[in-house]
Amino acid sequence: MKNQMPKIFKKLLRCIFTLLLLFLIVSIAGVLLLRFVNPPCTPLMLWRWAAGEGMRHEWRDLSGMAPALQQAVMAAEDQRFPDHCGFDWDQISRAMKENLKRKRPRGASTITMQTSRNLFLWQGGGLARKGLEAYFTLLLELFWPKARIIEVYLNIAEWGAGIFGAETASRAYFNRPASKLTAQQAALLAAVLPNPRHWSPAKPGSYVVRRAADIAADMRAFAPFKKKTYPSKGNRGSTTTQ
Fold first, then answer.
1. Residues above pLDDT 90, as percent of the chain
2. Residue 109's closest CA among 82, 143, 137?
């Protein structure tokens, strides 16, 4: 029995190592593939669809969106996005200190972190998900240019019940394509991102109006990204599932 234990232990370690290596290969290959191929859906989209909310999603390249939308989202969600490597350590440290005194914790997720979570993972908390979110955030920053990160983010972000992506949100709330958004409309869309299932950019409350005004004042400081290094492939059409 004593001689068998080391053998079982070695087999267990070998199995764990094999699974870990397989995960690394699959995850890195997936991130590299999605640099060039547009994702047709995300886990959150499928979850909302399974819950009976439907799923409306239409992909648009950055060139098909008003530059103001990029500027508004950076001003609202991640003002250090052009410069950081996936994590805004200053905001993370500040949030940790503030959360010791707050009943409702304040997040410090960057655009890259939100993209990794929305694209690869499930919603909610837990150390396992947080660890995987950090891992995929590093992969995105390592293998994707900033233009691709914000392009995917704008195309998979949730903007209401069954509404995903800037193109669908623009048409749903303002009856116009994302390429025709005004600066004010872009600021309103960015303003509701923290709670898109309860706030509406088309019928904003007083808080959303004030937040949008602050975003509009800050967004001019950000230069929109342009894709130059690769063609966009994959799904260019729309997905509507009820």
1. 67
2. 137
Task: Decide: helix, strand or coil at residue 124.
Answer: coil
pLDDT tens readout for residues 24-45: 999 999 999 999 999 999 999 9
DSSP 33-72: HHHHEE-S--HHHHHHHHTT--EEEE---GGGS-HHHHHH
The span from the CA of 220 to the CA of 229, in Å, is 25
3-class secondary structure, 239: strand
Interval 99-154: pLDDT, tens: 666 666 556 789 999 999 999 998 777 788 899 999 999 999 999 999 999 999 99
How many CB atoms are located within 10 Å of the residue 212 CB?
Answer: 23
CB 66 within 8 A of CB 174: no
How crowded is the C-beta side of 115, counted as CA atoms within 13 Å?
Answer: 30
- Report helix, strand or coil for 110: coil
Amino acid at 49: W
Q: Domains of the chain (ranges plus CATH)?
A: 41-241 (1.10.3810.10)
pLDDT over threshold 60, residue 229: no
Enter the pTM of the model. Answer: 0.86
Nearest-CA neighbor of 109 among 145, 144, 142, 73? 73
